[in-house]
Structure formats: C-alpha cells, structure tokens
Specification:
The protein is α/β, with parallel strands linked by helices. 22% of the residues lie in helices and 15% in strands.
Length: 352
C-alpha cells in the first residue's frame, strides 16, 4: 500500500537522534487539548514506544474552548488562558523562541462548506501573525487541513498561498509540507499541511522529518496493531475513556458508504479521525458476532479511547468530558507522535 508522503522528500532530516544545546520556550495558540504541545514536549509512551523528552518548554498557551482547556491542564500540567485570541492582552505574553498554532481549519476542509478566508474563522490566522510580529520568535509552526491548498471554484490562488505570503511579510522564511501521519508511526491515514517559518536573520531553512514508517523495513502501524487489545476491555474500567458511555450508539444505515457508516480497515492505518461525534464516528473492524461481519446490527462504533489510540495519544492522556466532546477534541488534535517528529526536525533545522 502506498500512501501519500512528504512533498519535499529530498529536503528532509532524520529525527531519531537529537543532540541539543539549549531548551526553547514555546507559546501555544489555538492549543486545543494539547496534541501538538505534547509532541513538542515529548517524554510519553504511545503504541508500545517511548518518545523521549524534547528540548522545549511550554511557557504560555491559549485556547477558547473551556472543555479543551480542562483536558489540556489535566494532561500537560499547564493552565491555558481560556479566552478569544482576538481580545488577548499581549502584555501577558512572555518572551518565546517558538510559536505553535493550529488555527481553525473547518472553513478550509474539503468535507465542509469551504468558506475559507471569507469566513470569520478563516481570518484567525491573522491573529497568530500579529502575535508572531509582536514576539518575534525564532520560528513558528502552523498546522491545517489539506484543503487549504486547494483553490475554490472560480479562484486561481489558494488560501495557503495567501497565508504563506502574509507570514513572509512578517520577516520569516516560510515553507510548507504535506505530511501523512501514517508515515511517522501513527495508525491513521491523516494528511495535513504543516507550515513552518524561520526568522530571516537566522539564515536557516526548515527541513521536514524523514518518513519513518511504510517502508520495507518498517511497515505502517495498522488499526489492529493500535486497538485490538481494547476490544475485550470495553466497560471493564481497566482503561480510561473506554466504558459503555464512551462510544456512540448512533444507528448504522444499510448500503450507505458515507462517513460514519463504514468499518475502519484492520490491516492498514485507519481512516482519518475527524472532529465529529455520534453518527460520524466510524465502526470498529470487528463485529459483536463473529459469523455476521457484514450485519450492521452487530457493528460497534469506535470508543473515545480507541480514537485516541488511533491519534497516538498515550493511554494516560485522560479526556474528562462527555464522549461527544472528547471525540471532537481528539479529531481536532495533531497526533502527538507527528508533533514529536516535527519538533525534532525544527530543532535540527535551527541548530544542527
């Protein structure tokens, strides 16, 4: 199976080893539940592997959603400023070396209405730009959906082109890459745009992480690899976010191959985990009755913990909220494993 890989394969860097000189301070914007930030921090276990600590220190985080802030604080031991970025008092911002931000992506998604930059949320990247201009960090990292580089009907310039030009005007050498999380050990086919800017006076250019999985020597992590051990643990309280309250009971519809009406593949990385709930959550590849695999009455939707595993969140990462809210937080997040590789590639680009 061949998944889409990085666009800049010839300008990539090995992230398995990292020698660091100093710790870099991070400001996190549009923090969500903390997937990208956990990846930058490192020091977590996921899917049987340990991801060592990275040389970054979180000094400030901002997120609008109250529930996401609660999840973030519980798991990252840091309290975000929970308010609209548009009214944020810049005087409270500390100095920082790096700014992270996954500005809202719904208006650019190919599965949405695609209002793009014309929508109010589509303009929120400008708030990130203002803070970058105010702080003048060494570098920034932004994440968004692949739809951001697609032109809307009747248009010749993509939102991505406009956004990159705006960041470059702020004094940053700005590059983007198309990364598929499956290529870095995440059990999910998730294609995202990663935009990185490095301040021009540093005379450095971002090199993106080399592909680590999906090769002859190191195959993709499959859905079965990630979640099969959880099947018999549902409702046992052995693992958090995997009770009978933690999965959607929404009905499946016969002969409809739409989102939320399919089983994820067993022997491949999962479909993309989206910020949806109830009827849009896909079905587990197993069935409640072994001899009736195609009978939708015997299907079960993925639990919150299963979705978190497919996003590479550690089992110790707790979602202290209702399942519908947790599904959204997980689907909006950057997979921590992908964030870990981006963090190390950025550090290499700046110093090594």
């Amino acid at each position: 199976m061949k998944l889409k890989i990085s666009e800049y394969e010839n300008n990539s860097i090995d992230t398995t080893e990292l020698n660091f000189r100093k710790c870099l301070d991070i400001i996190s914007l549009f923090s969500g539940c903390g997937g990208m930030d956990l990846g930058f921090r490192g020091d977590f276990k996921s899917l049987g592997s340990y991801y060592e600590a990275n040389p970054y220190r979180l000094v400030f985080a901002n997120e609008l959603n109250n529930r996401a802030c609660e999840t973030y604080q519980l798991n990252l031991n840091h309290k975000p400023i929970c308010e609209d970025i548009r009214i944020l008092d810049y005087k409270m911002l500390p100095e920082a070396d790096i700014i992270l931000g996954g500005f809202p992506c719904q208006d650019f998604s190919l599965s949405g209405k695609r209002e793009g930059l014309s929508a109010e949320r589509g303009q929120l990247y400008l708030e990130m730009k203002k803070i970058i201009q105010y702080i003048r960090p060494k570098a920034f990292v932004a994440e968004n959906v692949d739809g951001i580089r697609k032109c809307k009907t009747g248009e010749t310039i993509s939102a991505l082109h406009i956004i990159i030009k705006d960041f470059e005007k702020s004094g940053y050498i700005t590059k983007y890459n198309v990364l598929n999380s499956a290529n870095y050990g995440v059990p999910q086919n998730r294609i995202r745009i990663i935009i990185v800017g490095i301040r021009k006076d540093l005379n450095k250019t971002m090199k993106f992480p080399c592909q680590t999985h999906g090769t002859q020597n190191n195959p993709y992590v499959t859905s079965e690899d990630a979640i099969d051990d959880l099947w018999d643990k549902l409702g046992t309280n052995i693992i958090a976010n995997h009770t009978y309250k933690d999965y959607s009971k929404a009905k499946f519809y016969l002969n409809k191959k739409t989102q939320g009406n399919c089983k994820i593949p067993r022997d491949k990385p999962s479909f993309t985990i989206r910020a949806e709930h109830h009827g849009n959550i896909e079905a587990h590849y197993r069935s409640l009755t072994q001899n009736e695999e195609d009978n939708m009455e015997n299907w079960r939707r993925l639990s919150v913990r299963e979705c978190a595993r497919l996003q590479s969140f550690p089992d110790e990462f707790i979602f202290p909220c209702a399942a519908s809210t947790a599904y959204k937080q997980i689907g909006n997040a950057v997979p921590p494993i992908l964030g870990w590789h981006i963090a190390r590639a950025l550090y290499h680009s700046l110093y090594n």
